[in-house]
Design goal:
The chain is an alpha/beta fold. The chain has two domains: about 300 residues, Rossmann fold, CATH 3.40.50; about 100 residues, GMP Synthetase, Chain A, domain 3 (2-Layer Sandwich). Helix 1 packs across helix 3, helix 6 packs across helix 7 and helix 7 crosses helix 8.
Length: about 425
């Protein structure tokens, strides 16, 4: 692999296994301006994990030190705010298998400009914005908000590994205008603010959350604390974005994740899968996985559309409601049970901080529905609520009290680790 000082041709791939920072984001933008594709990855990956993820990506360079970041940025600093010629090669979360690299290729100038304009127009990025980065920058959403801010002429603040006290201090000192977060961040911040007091949040014009279902109580606290009209939820994946939803819309349609983003069209297949038709700049393939790419795409009246396997419903006004992921489906006694529906019902019980529902083998039912619950709610309280709001087949047979759920760094439940909770094995 070449040394960082060796020029990298357009189309080259550079794996980044270093902690996020303002310099990290500058390098991502400078590389993309030259048509070189950064591959942001978790620096905590083991050697075996790294090799498995990178095999189909075949990077031309692997960056593992901050010195390499500086060396790559030297000579490219004048390109940091130039038009990116594509998207970073982000890898899927790997919650249901080996992560896959999402590849959009070099874009024509018109498509490259449309890619930047889409985020700027939706979120209103301007030169006066200050984006507070809470999540690891090797994930797509925080990096997208950070790069969108910089391309609009704003600045970013990267406090480091998430810590409620550190974030609270950054809010006071930096007066951020935008923030992307996951529900776990909000829950930890609110718990901290209950102890030390709520900081002045008046500088915020945009707080967007995604990545996992948000408990209704957390959502309502978010709306209560932050400036009116500033809070949003969006639904998307590493592969692409589907919807955006102001919290005020959610309040009138609890549970929705919004309507299709501009330039996109949603449709629901006969099996319930959600398909999203996208413009040319948002199309992709999975590197080294042509069969999975083929399964992810199909033609629709609105044009080429992709799915990530999620299942949902569209109401008469076009608002999307998620039912879960097809691959998470539990079949208990011949009845289809989507964990997300059961989880949303159990989140209504006082004392539930978080919950994950999963299937475990059962000699009578094929699978039985199980719930791992974080919080103070008792099994009796959970079962009593389930009897009121859920059909018998959807009611968990087992309630497991756990200190925390097995999670990825972006707040997504590692569902492959849940069945081990039944046997008492470490996830």
């Amino acid at each position: 692999m070449p040394h960082p000082s060796v020029p990298l041709a357009a189309g080259s791939r550079v794996a980044l296994l270093v902690p996020g920072s303002t310099t990290y984001v500058d390098l991502v933008l400078a590389l993309l301006a030259d048509g070189v594709f950064p591959v942001p990855l978790d620096p905590a990956l083991t050697a075996a994990e790294r090799d498995r993820v990178l095999a189909p990506i075949a990077p031309d360079l692997v960056v593992t030190g901050t010195g390499q970041v500086e060396a790559l940025l030297d000579g490219r600093r004048d390109r940091v705010r130039s038009l990116p010629r594509g998207r970073p090669i982000h890898c899927t979360s790997g919650t249901t298998g080996t992560p896959k690299g999402v590849w959009s290729g070099l874009l024509p100038d018109e498509d490259a400009a449309a890619l930047v304009a889409e985020e700027r127009d939706l979120w209103g990025f301007t030169a006066s914005d200050v984006n507070l980065v809470l999540s690891p920058l090797h994930h797509s959403a925080p990096l997208r908000f950070a790069t969108g801010t910089l391309l609009a002429g704003g600045r970013i603040v990267v406090p480091g590994k998430f810590d409620p006290a550190r974030v609270t201090a950054a809010i006071a000192a930096e007066r951020p205008t935008t923030m992307f977060c996951v529900p776990t961040h909000l829950q930890r911040l609110f718990a901290h603010w209950d102890e030390v007091g709520v900081p002045d949040l008046s500088s915020f014009r945009l707080v967007a959350h995604a990545g996992a279902p948000c408990p209704p109580a957390t959502k309502r606290r978010l709306v209560e604390l932050f400036p009116a009209g500033s809070t949003w939820e969006f639904y998307g994946s590493t592969e692409g974005q589907f919807t955006a939803c102001r919290s005020e819309e959610w309040l009138t349609r609890p549970g929705t994740v919004g309507r299709a983003r501009p330039g996109r069209t949603l449709s629901i297949a006969s099996d319930g899968r959600i398909w999203c038709a996208v413009p040319p700049h948002a199309r992709f393939t999975y590197l080294g996985a042509p069969e999975q790419t083929a399964r992810a795409w199909r033609e629709t009246p609105a044009g080429p559309a992709f799915t990530v396997g999620d299942v949902g419903r569209l109401d008469d006004d076009g608002y999307l409601h998620l039912d879960g992921r097809r691959t998470d489906l539990i079949i208990s006694g011949g009845v289809n049970v989507y964990p997300l529906e059961v989880e949303n019902a159990l989140r209504e019980v006082p004392g539930v901080t978080d919950v994950a529902v999963f299937g475990a083998p059962d000699p009578d039912w094929g699978q039985r529905v199980c719930a791992a619950v974080v919080g103070t709610a008792t099994a009796a309280e959970l079962a009593a609520h389930a009897r009121v709001v859920l059909a018998p087949a959807k009611r968990p047979k087992d309630y497991l009290s756990v200190g925390e759920l097995p999670m990825t760094a972006t707040g997504k439940v590692r569902r492959e680790a849940l069945p081990a909770l039944v046997t008492g094995q470490a996830p």
